[in-house]
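Known limitations

Files may contain more than one protein. Parsers should not assume a single record per file. Below, a two-record file is shown to illustrate correct handling: read the sequence, read the token line, then continue until end of file.
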Amino acid sequence: MRQSKRFFAMFISSVMLILLLMGCAPLNNVSDVDVQKEKGTVQEGSTEVSESIPDYINKEGFPIVKKPITLTAMVYRHSAQPTWKEILAWQEYEKMTGIKIEWEELTSEVTEKRNLALASGDYPDLFYRAEVTDIELIKYGAQGVFIDLNDLIDEYAPNFKALAEKYPSLLKTARMPDGNIYSFVQFTDSDPVRINPKLYINRTWLDRIGKEMPTTTDELYELFKAFRDEDPNNNDKPDEIPWTSQSLGHVQNSLYGAFGLRNRGSSHPIVDMDEETGKLRFIPIQDEFKEMLQFLNKLYTEKLLDQEIFTMNVAQMVGKASQDLVGAFCHTNAQQIGVSNQDDFEGIHVALKGPRGHQLWSGKRGHVGGRAAFVITDKCKYPEAAVRWMDYFYSDEGSKLIYLGVEGKSYEKTADGEYNFLSEIVDNIPEGSTFDQVISHYVPYAGGGLPGLQKTEFFKGGETQPIGLKAGINMASFTPKEVWEKFSYTLDEIDEMGAIESDIIGYVNQMVPQFIQGKISFSEWDNYVSAITKMNLERYMEIYTKAHERYIAE
């Protein structure tokens, strides 16, 4: 688009020069020039056409627009949040920018309503945290429904560009295989948030039985046996549950690294790198994966792992902890065990060393969470303003606004440089309300996935509270040196991979619990691997490898 403007300007200038040499009048009355002038691309008092910005917008500073405008946006609203127009941060930002957002709030059936809007053509200017999928991003980007942002970012998004220069992986993820960027992403620059889960041990129980934090998987096993047998909750009952969590997946995620798996982070849960061959490998058929399942089988059969782990949820986990039955759990933050019980727990001090000597904490995702967190559609009459509106949230000041709100009204900066919500807000949560419900009147981050920059110092969720923060710091030095962001795929690749992956993952999810429970013997492992291989695994890995090659070539 910019190149065509430059060509047009050069062409007009050349024509004018020829006409002047011929003694003709300049092109003061050419309709195309008048159109350019209306858009602000012709300098006043000159016949020269030049590249400029539209008259309605200020390229820098606030307000963004010279006269107020309104944009429409579809957004997912979390159950803890009030109507979005009531949130202080958005009220403040409207005053700053001159841009009013009319929010179409979805609290349920987000996918169905988004798909209906796109299919019918009755869609808004913007999709903001509306769970737009990669398939939709590529499909509607190619059709022009989601506009190409390449030139707009170059002209109107200095904060995004600066972040991309600091973190090249940002563009690796945002750019689609056709070379275009159709979305702004959710970008996290915070190890405590990116490291998920952490493994928390009951510190009170450790002290009662005189044990230290485990440093290996063998020591973890021995500790759990002590939790089971030595009555650390002092009730004279054999009711202790050494290890539980809200799902089996959280438990597995705490062990992958100790068995040398997910060595490129958790954004790619089933594929990593074979360090010896330099080729991608499919994790669920590796010998190390088998060894991890055997370890879990030992924990389960000896009642060191919650016997209800296959059907667990958060409420059940909190209920068990409230009865002082839990010795360890895993989650991104300690608050998940229940606010009244979290102080009993402490994150492990070092990553567990596994049977082959691996000491890796692989539960760290890439910087980019939601890839299509913010898209601009072809209905938007003010795409330049929309880009400037979004770009602010990739700055520290913008990050503070959406995660802390307004200084003096919702947060303060302490003498030692810390940012905290005002005590009169967080220390007086009404009975029957939650922290998220109270804070959501000031900031919009409940539910996660906000486009923009998320930083440790500004984000005050459970991950950055003292227990979770320390646990994340403990694990940071053990995370993979190279953490892959999400790869990009063509529509054809997505279609082909999706069909294969559905069959394979469905089979893996069916078999893994049975191996752990002992319902299927590990003597059947080779048959399990053979079955997966026959599900067109080779083709799946070929496509994955192509995407990886594009990723590293970016």
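...continuing to the second record:
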Amino acid sequence: MSIVTFNCKECQKPSSYEQEDWDCFKKFGFEPQELCFECDQKQRLCFRNERALYTRKCDATGETIISIYSSDKPYKVYKSDYWYGDKWDALSYGRDFDFNRPFFEQFKELQLQVPRLALTNINAVNSDYCNSAYGNKDSYLIFGGDFNQNCLFGTLCMSNVGSLDLDYSNFNELCYVMGDTLNSYGCRVTFDSKNCNNCYFISDCIGCSECILCTNLANQSYCINNQKYSKEEYLQKKQELINGSYVQQQKNFGDFLDLLKKRKVKYIHTVSCQDCSGDYIKNSKNCKNCFDVSESQDLRNIIFASKEKDCFQSCLLGDDAELLYQCVSVMKCYNIQFSFFIADSSNIQYCDFIQNSQNLLGCTGLKNQQYCILNKKYSKEDYEKLYAKIVEHMKKNGEWGKFLPKDLACFGYNESTSSAYYPLTKEQALKEKFQWKDEDEKTAQPQRLKIPDQIKDFTDAMVNEILLCLDCHKNFKIVNQELQFYRKMDIPVPRICSECRHKQRMQIRNPRQLFERICSNCSKKLQSTYAPKRPETVLCEECYLKEIY
């Protein structure tokens, strides 16, 4: 297999293209861009804001709304029902293309004029503070998650009930602090596990019940530190370890982190896959250098996708899309390039916030349209002629085939999903020419109350009192729905805010980066997200199955 090496034009680090990369560029008809995987993804992800929510005015109605756009942003922002309504027309902002000016400059001007949707929160019931989400009910601060009910603080989590602090976890009920966990009930602090009940501080477990501080177990019960106990002994020890005390919970968490370092791990988290590389891939075929992908085929250099086919260098893809290149936040689409927030559409290039439309170039905010350029409508024949001329113009200017420039992103780097996946300081971000959102210069108020060690001592009067996060030193509150969950589960009130808790969980999860490793048992060569200096014992799939099962 031929390999072309180069220095990334952004970070200057050595990188390479394999023959399959070249084949993908050729399939989409674009010239290769000399960017490493991380720099390539960072530029797209900075166009998506999942988690930073603000209070501002709707520019149409004057109402106070929740939005991903802060009030100091230069955009017009409409609340959801008004944006989807018929009281305004995005085509009214259409303009002719000026062949004396660059395309990106004209597209940016259009972005500043066409109203933007405040939140992408579809079919929500009593779940106003969710974003990039669909079908959530009675839920709060769910980001990129769908069909959750009575859940709080979740990221890319689906179909959970009555749970809190969830990442990449689906079909769980009455659970607390979970990462990549499926079909579990009544569990707390559970990672990379499935089909477990009433387990605490576990990782890499399947079909277990009543286990505490355990890893690499299958179909076990009444275990502590991977040691089997009688039911009576276990329940006695459980009363000491899971006693509702914040101090004991922190000790358990520290012991859990130490336990993770001693695990035997399979080099990659894949299930029912054929010819795949990356991590967290399920029921997929021929997906290379992909992360968080399920039920997909023929993908390459992708972060998070579900039910996709023939997609290349893209991220955060929803169900049922095909032939995507250099896209972010696209679902149910065909043949989309260099675009973001596109749904139920086809044949789209260099667009954003498009729904149920076809054959568009350089458009924003359109619904149910076709044959438009810069939001101006044309006949099919005129569109195709003008499209060809603009492509040649963009090629001459060096624009065609490149993703949208960083200054067209609507968010600061620290507001964007890119910051969550690839954290940078302000100085680093500005050096890489990303935008940055400066925070309001307000002094954090002192913590007004001492949080008790036990949940029973946290009174109703303390709800919505200002607390000071011990990690980021920002103000946060315990909301009533959250407090009721802690009381029901006898879980102590946290001392850090939900964002810092999310970052803490993400530190447990492996990076989206592949390293050369060898199996610790048989010395087989592997590509793994476990870096060479990490302490875990990394095994190939065959050796892992022999060791664990």
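Parsers that stop after the first record will miss the second one. For reference, the second record is described as follows. Residues 501 and 528 are 26 Å apart (CA to CA).
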